Amino acid sequence: MEDPGFGKPSQVSPNKDILIWTIEGYNQSLAECFLTLHADRYIYEIGFWKSSNQTALILASRKGATQVVQLLLEQGADVNAQGRKHGNALQAACCYGCTIELVQLLLDSGADVNAQGGECGNALQAASTFGYEEVVQLLLDSGADVNAQGGYCSNALQAASSNGHEEVVQLLRAHGARWPS
Questions:
Q1: Crossing angle of helices 28-42 and 66-74, rounded to 10°
Q2: 90-142 per-position pLDDT tens digit
Q3: Are 94 and 68 in contact (CB under 8 A)?
Q4: 97 with 61: CB under 8 angstroms?
Q5: Could you tell me which of 42, 104, 41, 21 has the C-alpha nearest to residue 69?
Q6: Phi, psi at residue 49, to the nearest 5°?
Q7: pTM of the model as a whole
Q8: What's the half-sphere exposure (Cβ side, CA atoms, 13 Å) at 41?
Q9: Radius of gyration of the chain measured on its C-alpha atoms
Q10: How far is CA 89 from CA 11, 50, 76, 171, in A?
Q11: Residue 58, CB half-sphere, CA atoms under 13 Å: how many?
């Protein structure tokens, strides 16, 4: 069979569309079924999908689809692949699909806790923006740079403060966070 051109942003296959649509539509069991049946052929680039520039792993992380994330990782998805809006899978998980289990899975799979990119700058800033105190603690315990600069709020302290997350502000301050200069 001819290579369907996965990984090339200009070419989208019907099978790649099916996977993305199942993840996007929160149909986790259908996505799992598809991956189980077709992972060897279609996982590798589940790369950038159309103009959104996000991998299936970033999308599944953003949706909080922990079992789909696990399957993608087991099949070799790059845990540190960069996207545009959400930076990477860890940052996406810390923005929307945030569960401690999902974040731990990504960290255990080698996600770079200090990777920069996306609108929030890094995973710590993303979790701080949304007030996910337990996740902020996990990221700090995993070596997140509490004063890393970047993103639309400059750093995690400013992100937590500007969104009214006082407990996260206190946690960050206790770990040495400073206001951006």
A1: 10
A2: 999 998 767 899 999 999 999 999 999 888 899 999 999 999 999 999 999 99
A3: no
A4: yes
A5: 104
A6: -100, 115
A7: 0.76
A8: 13
A9: 17
A10: 23, 18, 14, 24
A11: 23
